[in-house]
Design a protein that fits this description.
The complex is a heterodimer of chains A (about 110) and B (about 110). With about 110 residues, chain A is mostly beta strands. Chain A is built from no helices and 12 strands. Classes of the chains: A mainly beta (about 110), B mainly beta (about 110).
Chain lengths: ~110, ~110
């Protein structure tokens, strides 16, 4: 079945460091890919998305590119801030199923 | 805009008790889902619905029931609570399939003692 794999956390970075959170997926067809962010005590909210191969999603300085050849959707940011501390979830929406499949989440802590 | 509203925010149950977690959305979304979030497990799909009158099971449906009598509401029922159901529960809705994003409620933190 469809699945999403993310790098294990927690990840701790200093402010202004570069961030990469790896995400790979297994799916039939051409799924849509998402990154969601969960701030402490809150629900998930969409960070960015890409709906077809080679699309780049971007928001709040974060970027991710849909790479079908490597089945990946890695999240990147050039300079993280303390306010970026959160849990990040990679997810896919399969063309086969009417549901969203989430990865396990990666916790990010940014220290001043 | 209310979006997705979940109630209650916190709940403590005794083993064997039943209760209903409420979820309502005001965006006229067809698709609604319930997830549970546990440490190290990410979000796991419990049940989902693609429209009023239609529900289906997700990954971890045992011990839970759902119904979808209206487009707006998608309650989750715990029939006989067990400590293994201690978790944070999230309801989500989306406009349709494939490339549409899911909107999440704030979550319900449930403890079963």
């Amino acid at each position: 079945g469809d699945s999403v794999t993310q790098m294990e956390g927690p990840v701790t970075l200093s402010e202004e460091a570069c961030l990469t959170i790896n995400c790979t997926y297994t799916a039939t067809g051409y799924p849509s890919l998402f990154w969601y962010v969960q701030y402490p005590g809150e629900g998930l909210q969409l960070l960015l998305k890409a709906t077809k191969a080679d699309d780049k999603g971007s928001n709040k300085g974060f970027e991710a590119t849909y790479r079908k050849e490597t089945t990946s959707f890695h999240l990147e940011k050039g300079s993280v801030q303390v306010s970026d501390s959160a849990v990040y979830f990679c997810a896919l929406r399969s063309t086969s199923y009417d549901k969203v499949i989430f990865g396990p989440g990666t916790s990010l802590s940014v220290i001043p | 805009n209310a979006g997705v509203t979940q109630t209650p925010k916190f709940q403590v149950l005794k083993t064997g008790q039943s209760m209903t977690l409420q979820c309502a959305q005001d965006m006229n979304h067809e698709y609604m889902s319930w997830y549970r979030q546990d440490p190290g497990m990410g979000l796991r799909l419990i049940h989902y619905s693609v429209g009023a009158g239609i529900t289906d099971q997700g990954e971890v449906p045992n011990g839970y029931n759902v119904s979808r009598s209206t487009t707006e509401d998608f309650p989750l029922r715990l029939l006989s609570a067990a400590p293994s159901q201690t978790s944070v529960y999230f309801c989500a809705s989306s406009l349709g399939p494939t490339n549409t994003e899911a909107f999440f409620g704030q979550g319900t933190r449930l403890t079963v003692v």
